[in-house]
TrEMBL record:
Keywords: Membrane, Transmembrane, Transmembrane helix. Residues 86-120 form the DUF1232 domain. It is found in: Endomembrane system. It comes from Nibribacter ruber. The keyword Membrane applies. Its main location: membrane. The lineage of its organism: Bacteria, Pseudomonadati, Bacteroidota, Cytophagia, Cytophagales. It comes from the Bacteria. This is DUF1232 domain-containing protein. InterPro entries: DUF1232. It is a multi-pass membrane protein. One of its GO terms (cellular component) is endomembrane system.
Length: 145
């Protein structure tokens, strides 16, 4: 397994990630905790700098996913598979958790596991993310964003 997505898939099978997936279930029912998670993930993604190819695309797509979670939480968007939503929230939890497989304070390597997990999620759930993007663009066109 050499691609970023393959490495992310491997991380998604890790016991720590499975623990975060179970935590995601409890968080989704608490708008304050969702808001805190989204704020923390946003800060981490916007402050991260990387020369890795595709980082900007991954970052943009994860930002879209964060808008999806916000829309889901406030009830304006519900057209998503629950498993996809939980796995995505678990990815965000992994990104913001200081204790992960490779600590983030290690230059380049510390963010590589986060990046690979995000790449796996984007690849595996592209259809859900594209469906939300279409919905989001329609809402913007109607002035409901």
């Amino acid at each position: 397994m050499s691609t970023l997505t393959d490495k992310g898939f491997t991380l998604s099978k890790n016991i720590f990630f499975k623990f975060l997936t179970s935590k995601a279930t409890g968080i989704l029912g608490k708008p304050f905790k969702v808001g805190l998670l989204l704020t923390t993930a946003y800060e981490k993604l916007t402050s991260a700098s990387s020369n890795e190819s595709g980082f900007a695309q991954i970052k943009g797509t994860m930002m879209r996913f964060m808008r999806l979670v916000k829309a889901y939480t406030n009830g304006t968007y519900r057209d998503i598979n629950t498993k996809s939503l939980l796995l995505g929230v678990a990815v965000l939890l992994y990104v913001v958790t200081p204790l992960d497989i490779v600590p983030d304070f290690i230059p380049i390597l510390g963010f590589a596991d986060d990046l690979s997990l995000m790449a796996w999620f984007i690849s595996a759930f592209q259809e859900e993310l594209q469906k939300f993007q279409v919905w989001e663009q329609g809402a913007e066109a109607l002035g409901h964003s």
